[in-house]
Amino acid sequence: MIKSPGIMKRILFFCLLHLSIGAYTTLHGQPDTVWTKTYGGVNQERGISIIQTSDGGYLTVGSKDSRSAGELDLWLLKINSEGILEWEKTYGGTKNDWGYDVLQTDDGGYMVTGSTASFGSREYDLWVICLDVGGDSLWSKTFENYGEDYGLAIQPTDDGGFIIVGNTRPYTPDNSLINGDVWLLKFNNEGDTVWTQTYELHYDDIGHSVKQTIDGGYVVAVASWNHWDSSMGNLVKTDGNGNVQWIYSDSMCTGFESVQLTSDGNYLALGTQHGNWDGENIALHKIDTDGKNIWKQTFIRSDILGASALLQTEDGGYAFIGYHRNQELSERDICLIKTDSNGEKEWMKVFDSGVAEYGKDFIQTVNGSYIVLGLTYPFGSGVESDVWIIKTGETGTSMKEESDQMHIKVYPSPTISTLFVETEYTNQFSIHIQAISGQLIFYTNSIGPTAQIDLSSFHKGVYFITIRTKDFITTKKIIKL
Predict the structure, then answer these.
(1) Cα-atom radius of gyration of the chain, to the nearest Å?
(2) CA dist list (Å): 19 to 55, 296, 406, 457
(3) What is the pTM of this model?
(4) What is the residue-wise DSSP string for 85-112?
(5) Where exactly are the structural domains of the chain?
(6) DSSP annotation of 7
(7) Averaged in consecutive runs of 10 residues, what is the pLDDT profile of the chain (481 residues)?
(8) Fewer CB atoms < 10 Å away: N or C end of the chain?
(9) Which CATH fold topology does 27-397 show?
(10) Is there a common fold for 27-397 and 401-480?
């Protein structure tokens, strides 16, 4: 039965869009490297987050020592699908300014979050910049809470606004900093605050990742620790106003770095695990919508030392990025780990430039390629850190084109309200509709050969509809008027 998009909440899904259209069949295997490129100058450049853009290229946010007006500036780096630099821009003032996360908005521009010491009234304020498609600022706002405030992750929300999670650290009466709390900030598309919530869970808490859930609430990945004797990972589930509904905690985990919604409606959290050199180090936690553990998989320290980003892959499995110790060189290499749908490791790919590297973020395109963002010392043109971006081949969950196998028709496009899907496939198939940002806004399962979808509640613009069967997948562009 087709579900009305009016009762579905927008969530960030595992798939970032690629602009190629076709039908595919799935293959498996460890990916090969297609190209690697470094970006930077004689000073420090750090990339923290990467997205795929609607033109098929990529955008990285981080910080750069530009040695112009300030110290570190917020930095955006835009490249095309082949890694060729299209533009780069810095934003900041006379002090340190950091960029942590970025997303593409429905109009093709960008929303960036970070922290600034140059603007605002505190030592560090949470900072949001709204940009056009060329990276020019449309507006910039700072947000204050306790003392030092940082925006670490940003996501779109179903009402057209945005949610940011980060950290806020209060000052004591003698003007010194104490341990921080998780800060959740909801604002509209003009930068006006809708609501804020803070969470004190343990002793020192940092929110690393946030996703909007199907019920309109939020799930937040938190690292909590006591500087003397203990630490833990917390996954916080809230309602649509940020009120806590439940907390999943693991005292064996030193902190959750990332959380994703899974295709079956549950949650997957990536954490660092307590253990000795030969013990367990990284853990994946599958958690249901009531905050109960479904399964937990751990990865030994000899395989991977740390991890920072997580996603669900096109075949229903999972992948995460981190760093691995090169025993011969005593350096750290970037590694990409792929698991099946139960968290069992299928393969691990190590990327080594001959010097120390750290994996920071990654994405998977529809055709199965991975785009990996890391730091390298000093592989590029500088003596400090440079940004290292790697593209893998179309393996792992690679897609091979199979033309006209499903004989699918999607019409009319453009459309004002109703969309029809016709196929010769008579068994169950799934339908996903995504915005150009990669955000899933509609999902359903249907029994062939036809389906009817109500788009009346969708905003005007370009969308991508993906129809998936057991054996094939096809993606088509549609326009809502």
Answers:
(1) 22
(2) 7, 35, 20, 24
(3) 0.79
(4) EEEEEEE--SS-EEEEEEEE-TTS-EEE
(5) 27-397, 401-480
(6) G
(7) 32 33 44 88 85 91 75 94 95 91 92 92 89 97 89 92 92 66 95 95 90 93 77 93 96 88 90 61 93 92 74 85 67 85 91 72 81 77 75 57 59 90 81 68 80 85 78 78 81
(8) N
(9) Methylamine Dehydrogenase; Chain H (2.130.10)
(10) no
